[in-house]
Amino acid sequence: MSAQVEQQLQAYYHFHSAIYDATRWSFLFGRSRILRDLKVVCPAPRRILEVGCGTGRNVSHLCELYPAATVTGIDLSEDMLRVARKKLAPYGQRVSWVRRPYAAGVGGPKPFDLILFSYSLSMFNPGWQEAISAALTDLTDEGCVAVVDFHSSRLAWFRNWMGVNHVRMEGHLLPFLQQNCLPRLERVSAAYGGVWQYFQFVGGRRPTGAASQAAATAGRGKVN
Q: Which runs of E-coded beta strand occur in the chain?
């Protein structure tokens, strides 16, 4: 992510942090459903990372879904993290926060079992490919990368309007995830009668060596 894009997003969320939770329910679809899916696909993670955690809405739900897990939220907006810290204070040391763009891994010697991107990758322009690569670096061998995000729209005016709001929706994310991850779940859904589409994806690291082909075949059997 360039310094210019980072500055633009920080300015955008300086205002939106105050209204984010009250407004996003109307168009950030699929967030609750992917959390329910994760309880089945990734039943017992111990260390969880959310990239672009914003005001902590998903972090709170992840803490409830996985009471034995620790959760880290990373975001570049201090305004959004300020809201999240206040909201998640009751969880104490189970929750930690990192303020920076996600262009390189943060897991270090203890990788994460689950990494969630919720309507964040479509705003990393440039930087979405680096973020997915960082997630695969930060992931345990058996861990899950989960993504819910905008997919595409057939309406040029709507794509342009979303671009004004720093969102790219050109169907670019899902093919890259399919190519670079071993899919465990994927779903594309329509919003508001087809004005746009959004997708949900859960995948793991692709194995290397002789087991790669067999694992890929098994993984395709799990796609919904």
A: 47-51, 70-75, 95-99, 112-118, 139-152, 181-191, 196-205
